[in-house]
Design brief:
heterodimer; A: about 625 residues; mainly alpha; two-stranded antiparallel ribbon; about 35% helix; about 5% strand; B: about 1100 residues; 22-stranded antiparallel β-barrel; five-stranded mixed β-sheet; 14 helices; globular
């Protein structure tokens, strides 16, 4: 009887459970409005990496995709134990680490979102056809970029195309093999081509949709798509991917399909990369892009200010920059600046005091040219520590100069204060822009000059900082602020024009040094001129032109290392050049941070590092392989 | 049989409740006669003698009252009868009545009380052999009877054992004390949505009578450990007002909500803040049969708490008061400064680094030359007082008449924690918790057939704490070394907080505890319920209708004032003092001395409605029972930030039960719950949860008689059924997608500095259903030694399927879905047993001994967990327990020889390397002797994630047990209870317990740091491996990674309580109006035996940073009048 009564009650008040949160969004709802469509587009964009926060690459929300690039190669070392770059440096990074799973998943979400957006963005009546066209092209370009990022980190990966696979797909539907290197790159390039042709703005300053002239800033335009094309083709041409690396010759899918090419025309690949870079420069150099130049009062290039301006990237005056091709507007600037502003115990103003947790290595310090344009050292003795000094470079390894400060002969700017160790004198301007060394004056002088001391008991040493100090006795200075470390107004620079110059020079040199010498030298010398150092075969104190292809390659690599240091390039360069086993499988050095005064200035091992072949790529996340039995793991994991 | 059939259809005819009878029976059996009476009235017959059923009677009455009717029927028999309320006893007239002494009578008076000295009202008193001579006690429990000299008086009272008192001797005053019936046929037990006769109960349940239990804690849940079989209770902290225990019933069988449903007076409520004095009983329902009626809520077991109802009698006021002092069960013991510095230096020298502390510093610290410059602070001593205290007072009154009775109580509880305060501060950060409780239960009989029960309870809890959480204070004491800075600086009498980190790290623990402000917390709770019960005998006998409505409100308010003062340290340690001897300090961290105000609040309200029809009736040896029940609950939490969270949490269902028993030998029961949950789509919203049970009381069989003297009771029970669970921790309305606009997933375009929000998919919509728990229980109850020893034993087995798991293992990431949707994909098996044993024995007149023990153990394991086939079998969770710990398998510490063997291998050529396995795999290069060595499970020469496996149980015990003893000698009684757990394992890690593992080598040390591997003592049998300094040392990364080296056994046994009480002799306070006065002393957590020595093993912490549990010593008094 109660049952009958109760059942009656249940049906009588069936609205008891009808309360639902009616503010729920759904894909349908999102694409019904223009603002929803724009928001969805923002969540296609959001997976562009914010490389300013490389400290927390392991525990971030899915929208954030920075990588461990700077401290995960011989450029730098983080002091904090929790930073995941350590697992790369000691080869303990495995397929079950969160880092592997996180980036993989994030960029595939970006890919999923882009595909979804392209399918649905025309839904709202308020979105114009022109908008649909442009935004679709942007989503297409972004999707290709995310494939590029995946490819660069994981090697060849599965390409999903236009398919959206259901969440409740069966086991069989998710058995997708990896595509080959060539298939991946060709797909990326063709998609970027398509996006360029079918709707991308030529440049963000050209506003096809009306409105203010600058409201398109940050969007993917044809120049950015072209720059990514160059990057993709450079990878395809590079030794790691062009069949020169035998380690991957047996990496094949379950069905026996080889993932890496064999016996291909390497020259043609370099030519394709050179063509893409050349196309970029032909179409966009001077029209949209030039190197930043700041002149001194007497009309000469001020190299330090020019270089620092190029790397400043102030959002508030972003349209005034000529050198930035690709950047992320909102980013973790203060995190980056906290890493790069030393501890500075005792500084009265908190703007000066941060952590200095990102220490640059001695190896990077050694890479900077002397003011005379020559490399200070040519390598290391068998102990891996003692430098082999270039006899004619004028490099002095030891001693302190207590007589004078080091003044830039061109600008008259003080580059290093009095009592600077000789190693840090007479170096090229980019050194002073990129490295904070012991005794250097801090950038921020708004509340008075402050000198950074990394010695054990110094203001930024291990004793003072306890757990905030540099493990190398140097701190990365590039992009460090002249104001307080907590002040933003800085875009995260992801590609600058010199990258294309250097790509172009490298590709042309690989095609043929003799045939392309003039063009190669032109672009390398542009960089060196701006950097304030003698050029090859031209200008004041000209250096001899590199004799052959190998010498030119070395010069290009050296220039690239210095110019793009700490800009997330070297991590991939040492891999694609197949040189990582030589440069990364060894200890990194710094100064003796447990010593004071003279004892500090002693090359000291910071940590042993390991590079084995498998470390060319991240491991494919184990969880993916567990589900998708056709997804083969990278060799060595 | 015909009679029976007839009776079944009779009710309709006898709807009018008559006080007169019309019966025409010619040579019918006595039983037929009784049935006729029962049918026409409320009267129930109680057969005193069993052989009267063959007696035949003839009766022909019409409209006679009960006495006339009975007289008429029994006049031809040798039977007599007595009417007590609605019970009619029929017995043989005493044949051997001594007629000679008839007439010699004397007046006997006295008072009848229960064992607590409470008056018993309405006790029937009869003279043996002259059973018509009866009387009953009055409202004061007093009686007067004119009884034959040298006769015996028989005292009988429902629910109490019959008692005989001889009237021999000259004494005319006979006070008697009756004790409650222990094993009466009619003893009732609490079951889901009602009560059942104990003998007929088949479901597995255990009951705790709270009356004797006092707990020197604000939280009632702390009393459960070791007292109830099947219950796993662990107390995670002793912090005042926050010390509720974690409770599970029969272990864990799901990664989702695994805690039991707790009902107070039938409504889902918390019972932590109920005063123990107000509780009548606490029952746990463990198997499917007992919990199926709770449907979707019952899968993890149910705890039913009943507060005290009123009773009939003159108001009795009881007062209980105690006062306790508290102490930590175990305070963590940290290393002193000298030990610390030497260990630091050793750890540095182990990796060939220069010493951090020079000998002069160590010597100066040792000599205490300057305790500001060379501090040596035991932070634990600076944080905590040696003693705290608590006190509790409860006053309650209970009484009433047949038509209205009541229970009302007020209590006050107050506890002060052990954390220190600083007198200089002008606020009060004393850690304390006060609570005021009230309870009133009113039972009204509105008409003969209508009862109304009204209950209201509530409390006001007021807590005061330092603003920094106690666990954070503890953490800061674990982060800072004893030698970094002194406790406090004073410069010209002005206090300055020492500190070294400009970002505020390495906080001063003393300042954290005393100088950071206070938080005042108020918690208000009102529980109210009203129940109407209508006897529907007019429809059919044994039927009643009951409905309850409950309304609960709760609010929480917190106000705090917080600050963080600037910190200072010596500007230059070489010139630390000025000419006046005052320290010259430099500000290291910029804080503020201004207290910043903050507030927080939350609350909830809940309504609950229940309506049921109950039927219970016996027909001869057959007994039927049925229950049909509807309930619904709606709970709103506020304030909340989303619309979704603001919607009431709703639950609705119906429940049914049918029971049948035959002759108290065979029992069968069917239970069913039918529930709906908001989590599921409308078409799959409701689920059905049936359970069936059978019981057999073998000892009631005829053939048992010869065995009866040895085994006085034996019962078998078996139940089988399913119950559900719909709750997951982070999701409501699973059938709806959850997309939100979120700046983190957005992007900035254009130059307007406006970020466009992006779309974050919190959850995609999934169409799911319940977790289903299939439970079986096989139980046996028996009693030996004349009922003195009773044993209850249950085997249980649970198979839980469709467990709601996030499918982050089976949906590959490359599909590009942001959310990990739930799926009904998990399967867990859980089995075990629980048992309780009780032995009660009276020795002589004065001694009463009772011994109790209980044991619970369970074993759970994953059968299916959504994990695809793993690369190696040991990577699969299948077959391991739900709460397991994973990591490397440690295999001792490296010796130099082993590392040398590795070196030799490293030097081999590539071919030789390929041919010979590396002798010892390592996860890092450059390990040293004394570092932890791991097993290379997959044998690939590398230690990496593929070598991680299940290495431990986790912190929830596999077995819990308790045993205790109560001895009463005259007025003195002693009770002790031991409680223990086994199978709990914990991976210890964190600051201090992992020496120098912090960045830059930070962290304090435990005093057991001496127990370590050193070059001079390369022992394998040590607590700590080789020391290294700093998070970046590969040794530290290797040694402190999750491995079995750090798995510690958290088993313990402790003297949970010990209590001595003494009932003062009545003559001491006679005439003062007191009925009963007793004094008592008790202690709790008096000692603990555990292999684990560093902190209280019950705490939920990996490195001891939790406010410890308390040992309390209490003294109290209890009296009633």
């Amino acid at each position: 009887m109660t049952m009958i009564l109760a059942v009656g009650l249940l049906s009588a008040c069936s609205d008891f459970f009808d309360q639902v949160p009616n503010d729920r969004l759904s894909n349908t709802k999102i694409f019904e409005t223009k603002s929803g469509t724009e928001k969805f587009l923002a969540s296609v964009y959001t997976f562009i990496p914010d490389e300013a926060n490389q400290r927390m690459v392991h525990e971030t929300t899915l929208s954030r995709t920075p990588g461990p690039w700077t401290a995960g190669c011989d450029e730098a070392e983080y002091v904090w134990g929790f930073v995941t770059s350590h697992s790369i440096n000691n080869n303990t990074f495995t397929a079950v680490d969160n880092l592997s799973g996180h980036l993989w998943k994030s960029w595939y979400i970006g890919i999923h979102n882009a595909t979804l957006f392209m399918k649905d963005c025309h839904t709202s009546d308020d979105v114009t056809e022109a908008e649909v066209t442009q935004w679709t092209a942007e989503a297409r370009a972004l999707r290709a970029m995310y494939y590029f990022y995946l490819f660069r980190a994981y090697g060849p990966i599965p390409i999903l195309g236009e398919d959206i696979i259901s969440m409740s797909a069966s086991y069989d539907e998710v058995q997708l093999p990896r595509n080959s290197v060539d298939e991946c790159i060709d797909y990326i390039v063709s998609e970027l081509d398509k996006a360029q042709k079918e709707g991308l703005l030529e440049h963000v300053s050209k506003n096809a949709l009306g409105g203010s002239a600058t409201n398109q800033i940050g969007r993917i335009d044809q120049t950015i798509a072209q720059a990514f094309k160059v990057q993709a083709l450079m990878l395809k041409a590079s030794p790691l991917f062009n069949g020169s690396n035998s380690y991957y010759s047996n990496l094949q899918n379950v069905d026996g399909k080889k993932l890496f090419p064999e016996g291909v025309d390497k020259i043609a690949r370099w030519q394709a990369a050179a063509d893409a870079a050349g196309e970029f420069l032909t179409n966009y150099e001077n029209k949209y892009y030039n190197l930043e130049i700041v002149n001194t009062a007497n009309g000469k290039i001020d190299p330090l200010l020019s270089y620092r301006k190029a790397l400043r990237g102030a959002y508030s005056s972003i349209t005034a920059y000529k050198e930035l091709i690709f950047y992320r507007i909102d980013n973790s600037t203060s995190t980056m600046q906290y890493d790069r502003t030393p501890y500075h115990k005792g500084a009265a103003n908190a703007d000066y005091r941060a952590s200095g947790g990102l220490g640059a290595t001695q190896e990077m310090v050694d890479c900077y040219f002397m003011a005379n344009g020559k490399l200070p050292i040519s390598g290391y003795a068998a102990d891996g520590k003692t430098p082999i000094v270039n006899p004619d470079a004028g490099y002095v390894e030891t001693g302190i100069d207590s007589t004078s400060a080091y003044i830039d002969p061109v600008s008259g700017v003080e580059y290093a204060p009095i009592n600077t160790y000789n190693m840090y004198r007479n170096r090229e301007p980019r050194f002073y822009a990129n490295i904070t060394f012991n005794g250097q004056k801090w950038l921020n002088t708004k509340n008075g000059a402050f000198y950074t001391i990394f010695e054990n008991k110094g203001n930024s040493g291990k004793t003072a900082g306890v757990n905030d100090y540099s493990k190398t006795g140097y701190v990365v200075r590039k992009c460090a602020p002249e104001g307080g470390w907590g002040v933003g107004d800085r875009v995260n620079i992801l590609m600058r024009l010199p990258l294309i110059y250097l790509d172009y020079a490298e590709a042309l040199n690989e095609v043929s040094y003799s045939a392309n010498q003039t063009v190669i030298l032109h672009y390398i010398n542009l960089i060196r001129e701006r950097a304030g150092i003698p050029q090859y075969g031209t200008g004041d104190n000209a250096l001899p032109v590199p004799a052959d292809q190998d010498a030119m390659r070395a010069a290009i690599h050296a220039e690239r290392t210095v110019e793009l240091m700490f800009e997330n390039v070297r991590f991939f360069d040492v891999r694609r050049w197949n040189v990582a086993k030589a440069t990364q499988n060894k200890a990194i050095y710094g100064m003796n941070i447990l010593g004071d005064k003279e004892a500090f200035y002693s090359r000291t091992k910071v940590e042993d590092r390991v590079f084995q072949d498998r470390q060319n790529f991240f491991p494919i996340p184990q969880g993916e392989i567990d589900v998708n039995k056709k997804l083969v793991q990278n060799t060595g994991y | 049989m015909t009679t029976l059939v007839m009776l079944l259809f009779l009710p309709a005819l006898s709807m009018a409740q008559s006080s007169t009878f019309s019966i025409n029976l010619n040579r019918g059996t006595l039983k037929q006669f009784f049935s006729a009476i029962e049918k026409q009235s409320d009267y129930l017959f109680v057969y005193v003698d069993s052989d009267i059923s063959n007696v035949t009677v003839s009766v022909n009455v019409s409209n006679k009252d009960i006495n006339e009717t009975l007289d008429a029927a029994l006049k031809t028999t040798n039977l007599e009868y007595r009417i007590e309320g609605k019970n009619i006893s029929v017995f043989k007239a005493a044949a051997d009545q001594d007629k000679a002494t008839k007439g010699q009578k004397k007046r006997i008076t006295g008072r009848v009380t229960d064992k607590n000295g409470e008056a018993l009202i309405g006790v029937g008193i009869a003279e043996a052999g002259n059973l018509k001579n009866t009387t009953i006690t009055d409202a004061d429990g007093l009686y007067t009877i004119n009884a034959t000299v040298n006769s015996t008086l028989v005292f009988s009272y429902v629910g109490f054992e019959k008692l005989q008192e001889s009237t021999r001797g000259s004494q005319n005053v006979h006070d008697v004390q009756m004790s409650e019936e222990v094993n009466a046929l009619n003893e009732m037990v609490v079951v889901g949505y009602g009560q059942q006769r104990k003998i007929s109960s088949i479901g597995s349940q255990s009951t705790l009578k709270i009356q004797d239990i006092k707990t020197p804690s604000a939280s009632l849940s702390t009393v459960l450990a070791g007292r109830l079989s099947g219950v796993i209770a662990v107390q995670r902290t002793g912090e005042p007002g926050k010390d509720g225990a974690d409770i599970w019933i029969r272990g864990i069988a799901t990664p989702n909500k695994s805690t039991p449903l707790i009902l107070v007076d039938g409504v889902e409520r918390s019972f932590n803040d109920i005063d123990p004095e107000d509780i009548e009983s606490l029952t746990t329902l463990k198997d499917a049969s007992a919990t199926a009626v709770y449907g979707v809520r019952g899968a993890n077991g149910v705890i039913l708490i009943k507060t005290k109802p009123g009773n009939i009698g003159r108001p009795t006021v009881s007062v209980d008061y105690y006062e306790s002092i508290t102490q930590f069960t175990k305070k963590v013991d940290l290393a002193d400064g000298i030990t610390y510095m030497n260990a630091v230096n050793e750890s540095l020298s182990n990796t060939k680094k220069a010493a951090k502390y020079d000998q002069m510093t160590i010597q100066n610290t040792y000599n205490k030359t300057d305790e500001l410059l060379y501090p040596n602070v035991n932070w634990m001593d600076q944080l905590f007082n040696d003693y705290g205290r608590n006190r509790r007072a409860n006053v309650n009154v209970r009484g009433g008449s047949q038509n209205a009775n009541y229970y009302a109580s007020v209590s006050y509880y107050n506890e002060t924690g052990l954390m220190k305060t600083d007198n200089i501060e002008d606020y009060n950060s004393t850690m304390k918790y006060s609570r005021y409780n009230f309870t009133t239960n009113l039972n009204l009989k509105i008409t003969e057939s209508t009862k109304l029960d009204i209950g209201t309870q509530g409390y006001l809890g007021e807590g005061n704490y330092p603003t920094v959480k106690s666990s954070d204070v503890y953490s800061s004491a674990m982060d800072i070394s004893p030698v970094d800075y002194p406790k406090m600086f004073f410069v010209n009498g002005i206090r300055e907080v020492p500190g070294i980190n400009p970002n505020g790290g390495y906080r001063n623990p003393y300042a954290d505890a005393t100088m950071r402000g206070y938080q005042a917390v108020t918690r208000n709770q009102i529980y109210s319920n009203i129940r109407l019960t209508q006897d529907l005998s007019m429809l059919t006998k044994g039927l009643n209708f009951s409905t309850m409505f409950a309304y609960d409100v709760y609010s929480y308010e917190s106000v705090s004032q917080a600050k963080r003062e600037s910190t200072y340290y010596f500007k230059d340690k070489n010139t630390p003092y000025d000419e006046n001897g005052q320290p010259i300090l430099n500000q290291t961290f910029t804080g503020s001395s201004d207290l910043a105000y903050d507030k927080a609040s939350d609350g909830n309200k809940k309504t609950y409605l229940e309506a049921s029809l109950n039927y219970d009736r016996a027909f001869g040896k057959h007994r039927f029972g049925a229950l049909g029940l509807f309930n619904q609950q709606s709970k709103t939490i506020y304030p909340v930030n989303t619309l979704e969270a603001s919607l009431p949490y709703r639950m609705r269902g119906i429940a049914g039960r049918a029971t049948y028993s035959f002759d108290d030998r065979y029992f069968a029961e069917f239970n069913i719950g039918y529930n709906g949950s908001e989590n599921f789509a409308p078409e799959s919203r409701y689920g059905t949860f049936p359970a069936i049970g059978f019981g057999w009381v073998a000892s009631n069989e005829k053939f048992w008689e010869p065995i009866m003297p040895y085994v006085s009771f034996l019962k078998f029970r078996y139940t089988n059924g399913t119950i559900g669970n719909s709750e997951v921790s982070d999701r409501r309305f699973m059938y709806l997608a959850q997309y939100v606009y979120d700046g983190n997933f957005g992007y900035m375009l254009g130059n307007t500095n406006n970020k466009t929000d992006g779309v974050r998919v919190e959850n995609d919509a999934v169409d799911l259903g319940w977790e289903t728990s299939h439970k079986q229980d096989l139980g046996i109850d028996f009693k030996l030694l004349n009922d003195d020893l009773s044993v209850i034993f249950d085997l249980f087995k649970e198979h839980r399927t469709d467990i709601l798991l996030k499918r982050n293992l089976s949906i590959p990431g490359f599909l590009g879905y942001m959310s990990d949707p739930y799926g009904n994909v998990g399967v867990v098996d859980n089995q075990g047993f629980d048992a309780s044993v009780e032995y009660n024995k009276k020795f002589g007149k004065d001694w009463l001994v009772s011994v109790r023990g209980n044991f619970t153990c369970n074993e759970d394991k994953w059968v299916e967990n959504d994990q695809p086939t793993q690369m190696y079998p040991w990577l699969s969770k299948k077959g391991t327990n739900v709460n397991g710990i994973w990591g490397y398998e440690a295999n001792g510490l490296f010796t130099q020889d082993e590392l040398d063997a590795n070196k030799a291998w490293d030097a081999l050529s590539a071919e030789d390397k390929a041919a010979n396995k590396k002798p010892y795999a390592t996860p890092y290069d450059n390990l040293q002797a004394g570092d932890v060595k791991f097993n290379d499970i997959n044998g690939d020469g590398k230690i990496d994630a593929y070598d991680k496996k299940w290495i431990g149980n986790g912190d929830v015990p596999k077995a819990v047990y308790g045993f205790g003893l109560n001895v009463t000698y005259k007025q003195l009684s002693l009770g002790i209870l031991f409680q223990g757990t086994s199978g709990a394992e914990r991976m210890i890690n964190g600051s201090s317990i992992n020496p120098f593992k912090g960045d830059g080598g930070s962290g304090n040390l435990y005093s057991n740091i001496y127990d370590r591997w050193t070059v001079d003592n390369p022992s394998q049998d040590v607590f700590y491996p080789r020391l290294a300094y700093g998070s970046d040392e590969v040794d530290n990364q290797n040694n402190f990674t999750s491995s079995s080296w750090w798995i510690k056994d958290m088993d313990f046994i402790r003297l949970k309580t010990m209590q001595i009480s003494y009932n003062l002799p009545k003559k001491w306070f006679s005439g003062m109006g007191f009925k009963n006065v007793s004094v008592y002393a008790m202690g709790s957590n008096l000692f603990t035996i555990s292999q684990f020595k560093l902190w209280d093993p019950e705490l939920n912490t990996g490195n001891g940073t939790s406010y410890p549990n308390n040992t309390t010593y209490s003294a109290g008094v209890n009296f009633s009048f």
